[in-house]
Amino acid sequence: MALELISFKLCPFVQRSVVTLLHKQVPFDITYIDLASPPDWFLKISPFGKVPALRLDDGSALFESAIINEYIDDITPPHLNPEDPLVRARNRSWIQFGEQCIGDQYHLTVAKDEEAFETVRARAEGNLDKVEAILGEGPYFNGERFSLVDAAYAPIFMRYALIKPMDDVMPESRYPRLNAWARTLLALPEVQRSVVDEFPTLFAEYVRKNSAYAAERLIAA
């Protein structure tokens, strides 16, 4: 089956699906669009007008990264989702929670002033505290095996690694297990290859464009 992932180059949710596809060595094509001016065909397959969307060769399409990743996992064994129903449900819960962590990260990059930035930072730290508290010994979320939860959090860790030289939102002293997990994921070839080569530059340009204050806090000149 031919798979076409619809994306724009900075989207962390798309990156979740790219990591999954690369990890499972599933052939796919990727099409980049301008979300500020999306083509009509995209709006027909993505009811929310958001990426990612996954187009199949029978003309059908899926949307929402968690759903797309579960579909990819279902059709390409061996499966990344745990077999135990309770563990699988727990994984889904923390994948959903990861969306809140992505949201925190986004709001940090667009904060217009110190008050807004510190409010979001406190919320981000509180949410990272919750993830830190439930992590085991690793190296992955479920222990020895890579799962869809790992694919879901890799984009978060990649962005925090980019801003760390300027502002360490996830310090080792407070988040030792999160940092160990992050190092494991960021060393994986499928994570490193899950973004375009110019991603660091595009990310910095995005922050500078959207918030002078956030750029000063997060991005080196």
Automatic annotation (TrEMBL):
Pfam families, per database record: GST_C_2, GST_N_2
InterPro entries: Glutathione-S-Trfase_C-like, Glutathione-S-Trfase_C_sf, Glutathione_S-Trfase, Glutathione_S-Trfase_N, GST_Omega/HSP26, Thioredoxin-like_sf
Gene3D superfamilies: 1.20.1050.10, Glutaredoxin
Domain named GST N-terminal: residues: 1-80
GO cellular component: cytoplasm
Keyword Transferase: yes
Entry annotated with the keyword Membrane: no
Alphabetical list of PROSITE patterns matching this protein: GST_CTER (PS50405), GST_NTER (PS50404)
Keyword vocabulary terms for this entry: Transferase
Residue span, GST C-terminal domain: 84-203
GO molecular function: transferase activity
Domain of life from the UniProt record: Bacteria
Name by which UniProt lists this protein: Glutathione S-transferase
Organism name: Acidihalobacter aeolianus
